[in-house]
Write a structure and sequence with these properties.
Shape: elongated
Number of strands: 0
Number of helices: 8
Oligomer: single chain
Structural class: mainly alpha
Distance between the termini: 51 Å
Helix content: 55-70%
Radius of gyration: 23 Å
Length: about 180
């Protein structure tokens, strides 16, 4: 039972009451003698806490020293605000008003800039490795604000291959692939 709960907690983000109900159903379905409600509740809580701690430890070990210093700059809460710059993207816009829509557009543009910045840097690195000259003056005029290649409407499915789930980037297209496409 503990392993089953661990897998559910590790691979999902279900609330404790949902995990409790699923665990009860799992026990009944497998014809296992039900433990008391408080025993099951303590098990769900304990395993959820353990998986959360493991996830945070895993995530905390990933950033480099340079990335940690960049994140540390985002942590302080400004006097006029209630949250830090790092905490703001976690909250989804709830307003269906003009300002709420503006916030949603800002969030989308921030995601585009971040995504494009990562891949632009990767493209520049690849060009330099291949021996092409990339001038700093040209890079200064390069903007990560383009979003024509990002579909803004529709349904999105984020099923990543194991390589991409490990934090690797998709391979860049070669000049030959770009010309043919």
């Amino acid at each position: 039972m503990a392993r089953w709960l661990w897998d559910r907690c590790w691979s999902g983000n279900e609330r404790p009451i949902a995990l409790f109900d699923l665990a009860t159903f799992h026990l009944v379905e497998n014809k296992v003698l039900l433990s008391g409600a408080t025993v099951l509740e303590r098990m769900v809580t304990s395993i959820r806490e353990h998986t959360n701690r493991k996830a945070w430890r895993t995530l905390a070990a990933k950033p480099t020293a340079e990335q940690r210093s960049a994140l540390t700059v985002l942590l302080p809460v400004e006097d006029s605000r209630r949250t830090s710059k790092l905490d703001r993207p976690r909250r989804s816009p709830r307003d269906i008003t003009g300002p709420g829509a503006g916030k949603a557009i800002d969030r989308f543009l921030n995601a585009c800039v971040l995504w494009n910045s990562v891949y632009l840097q990767e493209a520049v690195n690849q060009l330099r490795v291949e021996g092409h000259h990339v001038s700093d003056a040209d890079l200064a005029r390069l903007s990560p604000l383009g979003h024509d290649h990002i579909r803004m409407v529709g349904r999105y499915h984020f099923r990543l291959s194991p390589e991409l789930a490990d934090g690797k980037l998709r391979p860049l297209r070669t000049t030959r692939e770009t010309v043919v496409s």
